[in-house]
Amino acid sequence: MTARSDFLPPGLLEHLGGLELVARTVVRGFQAGIHRSPLRGAGEDFAKHRDYQQGDDVRHLDWKVFARTDRLYVREFEERSNLQAYLVVDASASMEYAGAGGVSKLRYASYLAAALAHLMVGAGDAVGLAAFGAEPRLLLAPKARKGHLHDLMLNLERLRPGGTAGAADLLDRLGASMRRGGRVILVSDLLEDDGGDALVAAAGRLRARGDEVIALRVLTPEESGDAAPDAGLFFDPEHPRREVPATPRGDAGYASRVAAYYGSLADRLRERGVEYVPVSTAEPVEQALVAWINRRRG
Amino acid sequence: MITFGAPAFLLAGGLAALVPLALHLIRRRPSSRAALPTARFLSPDPRTSVRVGRPTDLLLLALRMLLLVLAAAAFARPVWRPAARGTASVVLLDRGAAMAGGDAWPRAVTAARQRLLGPRGEALGALVLFDTAATVLPPSQVTPGRLDSLAAVRPSGSESSYAAALRAIAPATGMLPEADSVRVTLVTRPQSNGWNDGLAALRRAVWPGAMEMVALPDLDTGDGEIVADNVRAKEALYFADALEGLSYAKPALEAMGWRVRMTSSTDAVLDSARLIVVGSAVQGGFAASLDQAARAGATVLVAAPAAGSLRGIVPWAGAMRVDSGGGGVWLASGAHVAGAALRVSGDAARGAAVVASWDDGQPAAAARRLGRGCVVFAATDLERGEMTLDPEYPRLLDGLARGCEAAAAPSSISRSTPLDAGARAVLRGTGARVVAARTVPGWGGGVPLGRWALGAALLAALAETFFAYGRKRAA
Fold it and tell me: Which residues of A touch B44 (CB under 8 A)?
């Protein structure tokens, strides 16, 4: 109960209560839900007409169209089914960074993941949890039970930053274990040693399977250059020996280089149909979620 | 007041302490070390590691400088002394056998008095009396009365060892803690038997400056005659009242290399004899001749039967009566002869050295210098008793015949020549006669602070390590 309250403060729940997370792609599922299913014929919502083929159930023939056009068409319906989703949280060493705001990126990512899990489980979706840092780990298999939310919160709570593993391996493992048409929400700073090439490729493979992939990029203002720190000897937590004497505040190119990196990464992800959502830890969690979901629906 | 035995280390330490100061000043380093996951996008800016214009980490800097200064101070041999009271003297006074001739000894004591006593009789230093060994008299014992009594006694019969005297300089200097400088004076009649080649190094080691030498003159006849005395042929003249040809002493002395001429006449010429043995009573007027011969360099050996007639010159005190049947006699050299026929009571006279003892430790023979020669008294009859049959009998006679020479030395003629000018120059040394006390090796003045400085340096090192580690952790 404590963990749940910690991750989902009443204010956040209040803000998120009227929202409905609508998946952009149609997924395949077993339970009836709010998402559209690619399995047509047994559902309630009309999908489209198609030519009659031998063997089709004559009950699905659209006789009105036949009367108007003298051709046989079959009415197809969309099934409502639940979604199988994975929350993938980056727990690498860089996520420990908190900047001047006080909340580390990992903590902020946990807030996001918890809120999304709450929403999706509330919508009847099966939600699993995976993390990567020291190594890629599948922490919880996707389930739709309400009690599963508690386990998910506990696992989020236990995450500790460390390691330098990238997301690509974990995404590939998810692709091998999930049903097709699932959803993968990656919450990460997306700082990859290879510039994100492996991540983009892995996300592309998921998309090719028909999965929906959302990348929530979490960054502090200090990292993005919005509140660059003073002069100092800086090092990457994932590579502590690489020290750079610098003055970020006076480095005009710093923010643009960061923006260029994420801009390039976002472009490549979008090219593969991945939804890229930049989030700043300076922004309230619920505000970020509301803005994002509204953008999706609008 | 703190003085330093090796002040050059202080200078070196001061210069070394400037090194961490300079490093703290010129070191280029960033103001802080911080994590930033997007550090890869930073462009290196050398200005962030600018030279620090003023010392940073003042505590660490102070500890590092303190560490170096304390370590240097420890090596500089710091000594704390309450106050300094000018120059003190150490007088090395030779009391060996060489000082016995003429008025050398009173003159030597006078020279020592002039250097050790102030105008009101206060002590100005320490006195070292030496022959084969040295005795150090601290300033508290250097008094006019003590010097008077010293002048009254005769020097010892031993050789003079300059090595013993030189080694005594350090302990003598250590008895002068309140002096800031010291001078050393050697009062001696320089003889070569107190010298050896190894003394040159010892001399340089024990005293860094020059040493005043009060060289008393040799005897009036000159140094060469002393040598002649020592190497004079072993001619002996043996007086006996009846010459029946029966003498045990004569063949025994001849066995030891002496050429012995027996006589019963007091008119015999004494000049050529190096040894004159008086075995029986002689006429009273003969004593003057013997006295003269002794002063000329001869050794007069008086046996108990002649003691009564030569009471004026024998170095013996007491009733001189025959007490008992004698016994065993120990010579100072270690030879032992048993079966002496009689034993004369009494003791060695003042200024005489005991050269043989009875088995019970009482003196059996005594010797005393007389002029350039010596008078020896044997408190027994040398021609009677079973001792004449003892195998050590010749050695006993030879030992007594050597008289005032070191009785303990082997039976050979000792050579002693005046110390040559080169050796005297080495003894004197070079440099200042007045030397700062702190530069004297082994000087015990004051409280040495070197260990304390070293301990403080170790503490500073520990503190520096502690704070440096803490700072690194914090960074």
Answer: 244-246
